[in-house]
């Protein structure tokens, strides 16, 4: 089953379609739309006439017109070679060039006009000076066909420039910009041959979300049942969740499950520098969806244009964003519920959306899409490994237990990385080792070839052993899965710890345990070497974030109290911030918690120095310790929880 993004029908169309009918042939006798071409046709005719007249009457040649007196003088001087006469008009050519009496420079060919009253025996004079009287014009003029071809060149250039700018600015001829008039009326369509669509069978790990969207599918499949009951479906469904949780896949699955056309676009694709283009594209998108209703419109990353609007004046791109948002709101207000068009939008910043967008009557159903639990991750891995040959010993449930917090996109990447490793190793199947190594690469980064001095290598071994030992000793801490001193990414060594069960509410004891474990590396260096190095930079960042959350957001400090003293980023936008005195208290409490945890880490490592040395020596010998070996060397029994089963 292919889950590739549907393609656009035209390059200038800012949305993609799936399951829509294709354009069929034009009906016999149908009239061709004239609205966008009449201006171009009139302009082309005017340009043609101007060029044609210019070529015939203004571009006749560069021969000068001389006086008849000058012509007679040149004949008498014997300097005229030949002439051609038509009526009283005379064309001629001199034997030797002469200066133009009117200041036009030298000339050889000329034209003149014989006066009607002249009685100068011209023929006898020409014969006496051996002047040839030709039957063909001395100066040849271009014919009709060359003049026609030359006059068409600027018209072709004009049409090419016109079409170029129409596509760039207006989104195509008669497109969103409206440069060339109104858009052509829609043509009759024929159904596209059946193709594979994404359905709920391709979505796993978020069953509760699928349950909420089942109503939308049922409405699209049986709209008459709802109409008879007087019920109306939500006009819009907002999918809110972290990146990679499957919001786009869900929207496509709803359309595929119901068997209706699916229009998808990113909100940023509607925005252009020219104000008004985005709103026009929105109108066109909704009009196309209504033509093939029942249908689904999906707008990804709607927070791009749906942010809270400011009260001040705005110009440029900001004004274009607001106009596009206003047009979306207007189009959604235009739904009566009978069109059968459902709008689904996705965002990972639902907290910054404009209230007008999420009020009842627009996106009145908000569905939160969370990362999957352990059973969901196992189901997602099963979907993404359907086309990957797995070895018999592969245990997807085991992989799911070691990937807490990973989204569907992360798990898809994990399966792909494992397949790539198997190809590099020239294997026929993906093994459990491939999946484990792919997980380390995804979470920790690729291995680096780094030659470290023996002293730095030993210090790194004690650093990681401190993390691991405190993770084993601390009650309620996440179990240690792997310890390694092989450099990965920016780290010189890594200790992997993942929870036994899914955690949705974190206790103060658990958070203090995480701080103690994070400080274990620095504490081990202090206990063994009496110094602190820069290797604890990332550890300190984690410690700071946890301590700040405990004190300022989760009410785990008596001095600060049960307050959210440091609001989230969205609330900061409204100007809410802690008072200076409160910030001082927060800083003091954070230092107190971290200092207490560091003292606890130093005490435990000092008391268990023998186990710390044993882990460090084992790491120096084998570089990597798996979970079972690490607990065995440390002499600590790990009790598995029933929830893991």
UniProtKB/TrEMBL annotation:
Keyword field contains Cell cycle: yes
Top enzyme class: hydrolase
Active site, per annotation: 464
GO cellular component, one term: plasma membrane
Lipid bilayer topology: Multi-pass membrane protein
Cofactor: binding comment: Binds 1 zinc ion per subunit.
Domain AAA+ ATPase: 233-373
PROSITE patterns: AAA (PS00674)
Superkingdom per UniProt: Bacteria
Binding site for ATP: 241-248
Keyword Transmembrane helix among UniProt keywords: yes
Molecular function via GO: ATP binding; ATP hydrolysis activity; ATP-dependent peptidase activity; metalloendopeptidase activity; zinc ion binding
Residue ranges of the TM segments: 37-55, 144-165
Compartment(s): Cell membrane; Membrane
Region (Disordered): 1-34
InterPro entries found in the cross-reference section: AAA+_ATPase, AAA_lid_3, ATPase_AAA_core, ATPase_AAA_CS, FtsH, P-loop_NTPase, Pept_M41_FtsH_extracell, Peptidase_M41
UniProt EC number: 3.4.24.-
Cofactor(s) needed: Zn(2+)
Family statement: In the C-terminal section; belongs to the peptidase M41 family.
Quaternary data: Homohexamer.
Protein's job: Acts as a processive, ATP-dependent zinc metallopeptidase for both cytoplasmic and membrane proteins. Plays a role in the quality control of integral membrane proteins.
Full protein name: ATP-dependent zinc metalloprotease FtsH
The organism of origin for this protein: Streptomyces canus
Gene this chain is encoded by: ftsH
